[in-house]
Amino acid sequence: MDTSRGFSAEMELKHLRCLTAVVDAGSFTDAAIALGVSQAAVSRTVLALERILGVRLLHRTSRAVAPTPAGVQVLARARLLLSGAEELVTEAAAGHARLHLGHAWSAFGRHTTEFQRRWHHAHPGTELRLVRRNAPTGGLAEGLCDLAVIRAPLDLRPWSHALVGHERRVVALASDDPWARRRSIRIDEIAGRTLVIDRRTGTTTLNLWSGTERPAVEHIHDIDDWLAAIATGRCVGVTPQATAAQYRRDGITYRPLRDAAPVPVHLIWRRQDAHPATHAAVALAIDLYREEGNGPTR
User: Fold this and answer.
1) 4-93: CATH number
2) pLDDT in tens, 256-296
3) Residue 264: is it exposed, middle or buried by C-beta count within 10 angstroms (0-12/13-18/19+)?
4) Are strands 98-103 and 127-132 parallel, antiparallel or unpaired?
5) Are strands 216-220 and 194-198 parallel, antiparallel or unpaired?
6) How many other CB atoms are found less than 10 A from the CB of residue 257?
7) CATH, domain range 169-258
8) pTM above the 0.85 mark?
9) Hey, CA dihedral for 266, 270, 271, 275, is it positive or negative?
């Protein structure tokens, strides 16, 4: 018979707090003082926990109390659970005091540092934390952030969203590639090369090439793998300008890509659970892109 559901329904944090208090204090009397309850209440709570778990947890003598072997195991797990509960309360209490901004590759690119500086100045009571997650929604779907910067093609219908700006595309090359000596690259020229693409979060797809000639493709799954493949010289990459600003590497050169549509930059967030600072973050991002002349078009 599976009684785990009944056990979990009956056991409460107060049982675990009582057990740890008795062991830490060394007696039921001192535990009662520490908890601010009667000695009888402490005794009843520990007995109730032993009944729920079906094992004896404490050796009781007239002078001391010590955990049984089973009690030692339960005590260790109880401390972990209590610590986790305390962290949960702390995080919940501080929830709106922090704004977690997710992104897959490069946050706001060259605007990232300025965004952080202006945010700290304008909203000192709301700590900004950047979260990098190589996932289509930058960690939003996984619950890792409050809003996320999105560049990759994504169905935005499940999310609230705002277009904050656009970014030009650039070509990433090995620094010893002959193209690295040029000022810019035409998009049709890429068709004769091998293109490295991140299918999960990348902004580049073969739809950029409308003709029949398209580049060969090598797939990767992360920005570090993308950079490594390009550095070997066997591949080139096409990416938003933000990548060039965020990931300057020895052996990698970025050149402007001509005749390619810019990349839209969106902020997305959950419809039913928007952080109170969401719209302030959207407004700041729009201002930064607009100052550069790449703000959202109307």
Assistant:
1) 1.10.10.10
2) 999 999 999 999 999 888 899 999 999 999 999 999 877 77
3) middle
4) parallel
5) parallel
6) 21
7) 3.40.190.10
8) no
9) negative
